[in-house]
């Protein structure tokens, strides 16, 4: 009860602080906006890339399918791999014909099997504390009824085309009946909007700003996750003025949280929380979040096979690694055009949820400890990779090391005076935790196992006697969390 009262008090203080301050349209003022404690407590969120690109749902492995329109019209590709550049164009012509424009996919994006209640239930069962839905990607198609979406001369939104549904609104309503926070992704730029191509100032004034304000006012999201900012400076996007409006006047001003993608060169410099994408080993003195897909693509890619998806073990260890460094994991799923979440994605989410059900205490609400991990001897550098870093980096750092490379034997988090040591390998008999001093009131337990564990102090190290358990007695799979209370 004391913990609940303290949490409620903290939430009230944050809410009051968000409401009390008037923010000026400059980064010095805007950067004073506090990040709500719930975000740092959440640790695990689900990204959802869904739109007309979910119809063809195809690009070469190692590339983003949500960039289908750009790959198609530019005949360029970038990502992980060696490409000729016209692979998507050739696939498109073969499959749909040379005179089939990308915009025809809008009518084929039917979402007829989309059940927002089922999605929301899955997100809860997965242990996610927030979601971020692509309300509009770089192709400009909006998943909500919006006037500006049609200013290119034809209807280009989910209420008038294809699904004929307010997809943002339906999912927002369903998610808000759960404990999960609702966020929306929004792309600042659009590849082929005529104003973007020929009159960027008009695009900002007459398209982008009224459109993003409409999104905020209609749905009052908990997170506004912007992207596509890299083509122009923040001044050209009028980001400081927009954020001052968002924090001072908008319908979501008392609670909304933003990321750091507000203009060329501004990532990890200004905004709300910091973001990384397909990176590893990062840590900041500010709340931050790593985003990546389960496979490689964010949008559903029918070209990806089972082996292209990270295993549940890799995803869980990735989550633990990121949390030990003070960050959140925003893990992406890509539904198909009819609104089905592919079974392999559902399975991964449910496996993460099962693990969190046992080990959530060592994840949710925690903060960085004095050190993020306990390393073995050897070289700690991650082998250089060209392009985006694959999810197997964490397996190389834990259970499948390259000869001569060090491994992370334990990951650490802490909360309310307790330390959690999370092991990617179940210890044979004894767990050695280096540089940890027990107190006279210390108790050690394995999460999911009832009895306290025996331990002894050996110099600077704590040696814990680990119970020998049969496979069917194990509290979980993939990683095991040891709680050490009242450490000195």
From TrEMBL:
Site, as annotated: May be important for catalysis: 291
EC number(s) on file: 3.2.1.51
Alphabetical list of Gene3D superfamilies matching this protein: Glycosidases, Golgi alpha-mannosidase II
Annotated SMART domains: Alpha_L_fucos
GO biological process, one term: glycoside catabolic process
UniProt enzyme class: hydrolase
Record-annotated Alpha-L-fucosidase C-terminal domain positions: 408-485
InterPro entries per record: FUC_metazoa-typ, Fucosidase_C, GH, Glyco_hydro_29, Glyco_hydro_29_N, Glyco_hydro_b
Cellular component annotations (GO), alphabetically ordered: lysosome
One Gene Ontology term of the molecular function aspect: alpha-L-fucosidase activity
Presence of the UniProt keyword Cell cycle in the record: no
UniProt source species: Echinicola vietnamensis (strain DSM 17526 / LMG 23754 / KMM 6221)
Glycoside hydrolase family 29 N-terminal domain boundaries: 14-361
Family of this protein: Belongs to the glycosyl hydrolase 29 family.
Entry keywords, A to Z: Glycosidase, Hydrolase, Signal
Function comment: Alpha-L-fucosidase is responsible for hydrolyzing the alpha-1,6-linked fucose joined to the reducing-end N-acetylglucosamine of the carbohydrate moieties of glycoproteins.
Range of residues in the leader sequence: 1-20
Residue ranges the record marks as coiled coil: none
Protein's UniProt name: alpha-L-fucosidase
Organism ancestry: Bacteria, Pseudomonadati, Bacteroidota, Cytophagia, Cytophagales
Pfam families tied to this protein: Alpha_L_fucos, Fucosidase_C
């Amino acid at each position: 009860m004391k913990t609940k009262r303290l949490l409620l008090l903290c939430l009230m203080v944050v809410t009051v602080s968000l409401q009390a301050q008037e923010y000026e349209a400059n980064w010095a003022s805007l950067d004073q906006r506090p990040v709500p404690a719930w975000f740092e407590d959440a640790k695990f969120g689900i990204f959802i890339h869904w739109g007309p690109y979910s119809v063809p749902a195809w690009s070469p492995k190692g590339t983003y399918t949500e960039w289908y329109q750009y790959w198609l019209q530019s005949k360029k590709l970038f990502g992980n791999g060696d490409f000729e550049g016209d692979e998507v164009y050739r696939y498109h012509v073969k499959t749909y014909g040379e005179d089939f424009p990308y915009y025809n996919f809008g009518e084929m994006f039917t979402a007829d099997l989309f059940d927002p209640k089922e999605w929301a239930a899955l997100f809860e069962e997965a242990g996610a504390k927030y979601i971020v839905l692509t309300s509009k990607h770089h192709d400009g198609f909006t998943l909500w009824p919006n006037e500006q979406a049609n200013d290119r001369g034809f209807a280009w939104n989910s209420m008038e085309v294809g699904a004929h549904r307010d997809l943002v609104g339906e999912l927002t309503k369903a998610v808000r009946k759960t404990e999960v926070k609702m966020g929306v992704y929004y792309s600042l730029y659009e590849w082929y909007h005529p104003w973007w191509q020929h009159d960027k100032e008009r695009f900002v004034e007459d398209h982008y700003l009224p459109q993003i304000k409409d999104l905020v006012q209609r749905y009052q999201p908990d997170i506004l996750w912007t992207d596509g900012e890299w083509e122009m400076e923040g001044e050209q996007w009028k980001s400081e003025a927009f954020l001052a409006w968002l924090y001072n006047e908008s319908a979501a001003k008392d609670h909304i949280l933003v990321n750091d993608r507000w203009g060329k060169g501004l990532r990890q410099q200004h905004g709300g929380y910091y973001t990384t994408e397909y990176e590893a080993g990062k840590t900041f003195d500010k709340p931050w979040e790593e985003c990546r897909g389960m496979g490689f693509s964010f949008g559903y890619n029918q070209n990806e096979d089972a082996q292209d998806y990270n295993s549940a073990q890799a995803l869980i260890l990735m989550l633990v690694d990121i949390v030990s460094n003070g960050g959140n994991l925003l893990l992406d799923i890509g539904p198909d055009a009819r609104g089905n979440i592919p079974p392999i994605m559902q399975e991964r989410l449910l496996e993460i949820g099962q693990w969190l059900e046992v080990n959530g205490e060592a994840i949710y609400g925690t903060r960085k400890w004095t050190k993020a991990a306990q390393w073995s001897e050897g070289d700690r550098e991650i082998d250089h990779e060209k392009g985006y870093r694959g999810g197997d980096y964490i397996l190389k750092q834990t259970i499948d090391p390259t000869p001569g490379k060090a491994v992370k034997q334990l990951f650490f988090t802490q909360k309310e005076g307790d330390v959690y040591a999370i092991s990617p390998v179940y210890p044979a008999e004894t767990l050695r935790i280096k540089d940890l001093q027990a107190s006279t009131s210390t108790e050690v337990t394995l999460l999911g196992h009832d009895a306290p564990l025996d331990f002894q102090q050996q110099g600077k190290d704590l040696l814990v006697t680990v119970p020998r358990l049969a496979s069917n007695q194990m509290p979980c799979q993939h990683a095991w969390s040891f709680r050490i209370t009242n450490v000195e």
